[in-house]
């Protein structure tokens, strides 16, 4: 992986000494163990005892003309002489190609690589130049990063979104009623059809809220009206008084044939033997309004009346209203218009005081119960919290579908919380390893876990050993398998190894053991450099994995490759005993620490 830098100078002046400039032990190794070196990397205008001058990191020691011409070779210091010979800047310095100098600077990664915390690396949670989190970017809930291209690939979308594929690329689109899909699928449904006019989409499930006139709403679905379920599951036309035949039109029962002593009055069957407002006993013929001509109804026939308006003509010469004979229609207020009890007021009109089941009182009349007026005009089911659909049963609102953040509890939509979550009423706080989190979409989503656990797919998992779910601090689990150099989980930390068999012996190593997640040779055939075993070359250390070309006293990775660039390491093939300069991300090679 190539690196570029923005330059920001930091110059320090060191005192001179007869043996040369003092060594900055914080940055470099004292290879001669005398506390001094014959070079001045990184410092300006320091005159050395041999008369050479150091300028901003160019080291002229042992070289009369240094030409740092390949900035990509800026790397950690291998060995001072080797670094000079190959135009490689010491650790923490970078090449300024135009000035042919090694400068201090700020790291800038190559194109499509994330620079976060001064590290050039792509991963699922830091992808591309913008360091995007593939698990949340572009309405995703889960995603993978192509570490070479720096591009996020969505594997699942956030709630209320579905996946869309276009030319092999996956994106997330907002669910609509006409394009309703699941979070992890590209398949969508058109919920709108002949009987369904509108509704919502809940992770691929169609939930209707508005039906066509030919259908009624129940359980979030639109069902076609029939004679026995007209406008609701409880409205059976065949049970209406006097009904013999008819149909359901627009959710209302419309009679076309009535029982004996009844007549048809605007689609309903009315007992018309003495009803001056709807008079008739001919079962399939329309009722007559005798009252408009100041007449009374006798055995279904309009006849002359001597009674005042709104007073019942009893047919025996008496004009009188009471509960059983009220007004010009001589109506029985105890069974008029779905009433089971009532009175006749001074105006000669029936006023209901009690109604049949599935009806309620409103302004002295008995109206049918619906979800918009269930048991009373004030009990409006559709305005209840979390309500999507349901029925009015026994004057109670009974929900059967709730909004996604609610769950059903005995017909009531209850807001989800961490203690009671979803339809199964899960107690999230009782789940293994749980410390904190929320309930979303009916599922427990952990945000924080106890020590030795980590969060994986919104759940707390034991994270001390699993390489794809590794973590111990209670936060998000890490997938160690994405880092080929630290592909094992040791005590909750992505490490070089978990057991001895995970370790690979590099040149100079023997009897390698896994200790605290690091591969350590019990025996070092070379020399220890910063606690790591490396090959010696003319008494000086090579990088891990490199060998020494004795004829030139030069460290190299293989016969055709010299010291590897800063972006590569001298890595060992997984299948052969060969070495090559490779990046850490090359899965065909095992790279040293």
Features:
single chain, 593 residues, mainly beta, two-stranded antiparallel ribbon, 1 helix, 47 strands
How would you sum up this structure, described in words?
- The protein is built from 1 helix and 47 strands.
- With 593 residues, it is mainly β.
- Among the domains are: 1-110, no CATH class; 259-368, no CATH class; 428-495, no CATH class; 502-590, no CATH class.
- Strand 43 (547-549) and strand 44 (554-556) form a beta hairpin.
- It starts with a strand and ends with a strand.
- 39% of the residues are buried.
Indicate the structural class.
Answer: mainly beta
Q: Name the average pLDDT.
A: 77
Count of helical stretches: 1
Shape: rod-shaped
Which regions are unreliable across 5 or more consecutive residues at pLDDT < 50?
1-106
Could you give a short description of this structure?
With about 600 residues, this protein is mostly beta strands.
SSE blueprint and pairings:
Elements: E1 3-7, E2 46-47, E3 53-54, H1 80-85, E4 94-96, E5 101-103, E6 105-109, E7 140-146, E8 151-157, E9 161-166, E10 169-174, E11 180-181, E12 188-189, E13 196-202, E14 205-211, E15 215-218, E16 221-224, E17 243-249, E18 252-258, E19 262-265, E20 268-271, E21 295-298, E22 301-304, E23 339-344, E24 350-355, E25 359-362, E26 365-368, E27 387-393, E28 396-402, E29 406-409, E30 412-415, E31 434-440, E32 443-449, E33 453-456, E34 459-462, E35 488-490, E36 493-495, E37 509-515, E38 518-524, E39 527-529, E40 532-534, E41 536-537, E42 540-541, E43 547-549, E44 554-556, E45 569-573, E46 579-582, E47 589-590
Antiparallel strand pairs: 1-6, 2-3, 4-5, 7-8, 9-10, 11-12, 13-14, 15-16, 17-18, 19-20, 21-22, 23-24, 25-26, 27-28, 29-30, 31-32, 33-34, 35-36, 37-38, 39-40, 41-42, 43-44, 45-46, 45-47
């Amino acid at each position: 992986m190539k690196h570029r830098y923005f330059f920001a100078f930091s110059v320090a002046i060191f005192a001179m000494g007869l043996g040369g400039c003092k060594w900055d032990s914080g940055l470099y190794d004292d290879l001669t163990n005398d506390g001094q070196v014959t070079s001045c990397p990184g410092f300006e205008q320091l005159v050395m005892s041999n008369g050479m001058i150091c300028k901003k990191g160019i080291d002229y020691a042992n070289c009369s003309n240094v030409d740092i011409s390949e900035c990509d070779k800026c790397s950690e210091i291998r060995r001072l002489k080797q670094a000079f010979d190959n135009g490689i800047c010491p650790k923490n310095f970078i090449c300024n190609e135009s000035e042919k100098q090694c400068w201090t600077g700020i790291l800038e990664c190559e194109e499509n690589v994330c620079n976060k915390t001064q590290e050039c690396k792509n991963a699922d949670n830091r992808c591309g130049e913008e360091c995007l989190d593939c698990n949340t970017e572009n309405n995703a809930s889960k995603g993978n990063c192509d570490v070479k291209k720096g591009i996020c690939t969505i594997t699942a979308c956030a709630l209320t979104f579905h996946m869309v594929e276009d030319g092999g690329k996956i994106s997330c689109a907002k669910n609509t009623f006409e394009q309703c899909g699941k979070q992890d699928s590209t398949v969508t449904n058109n919920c709108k059809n002949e009987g369904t006019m509108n509704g919502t989409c809940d992770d691929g499930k169609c939930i209707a809220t508005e039906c066509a006139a030919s259908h009624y709403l129940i359980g979030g679905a639109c069902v076609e009206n029939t004679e026995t379920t007209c406008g609701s599951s409880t409205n059976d036309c065949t049970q209406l008084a006097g009904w013999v035949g008819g149909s359901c039109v627009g959710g209302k029962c419309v009679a076309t044939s009535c029982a004996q002593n009844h007549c048809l009055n605007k689609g309903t069957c009315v007992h018309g033997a003495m009803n001056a407002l709807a008079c008739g006993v001919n079962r399939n013929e329309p009722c007559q309004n005798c009252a408009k001509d100041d007449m009374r109804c006798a055995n279904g026939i309009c006849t002359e009346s001597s009674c005042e308006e709104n007073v019942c003509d009893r047919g025996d010469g008496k004009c009188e209203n009471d509960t059983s004979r009220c007004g010009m229609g001589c109506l029985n207020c105890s069974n008029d218009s779905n009433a089971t009890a009532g009175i006749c007021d001074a105006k000669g009109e029936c006023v209901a005081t009690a109604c049949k089941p599935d009806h309620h009182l409103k302004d002295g009349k008995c109206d049918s119960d619906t979800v918009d007026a269930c048991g009373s005009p004030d009990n409006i089911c559709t305005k209840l919290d979390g309500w999507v659909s349901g029925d009015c049963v026994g004057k109670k609102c009974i929900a059967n579908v709730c909004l996604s953040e609610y769950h059903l509890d005995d017909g009531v939509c209850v807001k989800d919380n961490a203690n009671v979550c979803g339809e199964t009423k899960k107690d999230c706080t009782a789940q293994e390893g749980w410390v904190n989190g929320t309930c979303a979409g009916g599922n427990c989503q952990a945000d924080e876990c106890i020590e030795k656990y980590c969060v994986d797919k919104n759940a707390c998992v034991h994270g001390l050993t699993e390489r794809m779910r590794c973590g111990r601090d209670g936060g998000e689990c890490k997938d160690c398998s994405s880092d080929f150099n630290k592909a094992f989980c040791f005590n909750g930390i992505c490490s070089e190894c978990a057991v001895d068999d995970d370790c690979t012996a590099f040149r100079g190593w023997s009897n390698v053991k896994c200790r605290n997640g690091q591969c350590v040779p019990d025996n070092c055939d070379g020399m220890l450099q910063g606690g790591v075993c490396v090959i010696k070359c003319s008494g000086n250390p090579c990088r891990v994995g490199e060998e020494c070309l004795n004829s030139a006293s030069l460290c190299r990775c293989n016969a055709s490759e010299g010291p590897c660039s800063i972006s590569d390491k001298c890595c060992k093939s997984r299948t052969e005993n060969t070495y090559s300069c490779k990046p850490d991300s090359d899965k065909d090679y095992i790279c040293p620490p």
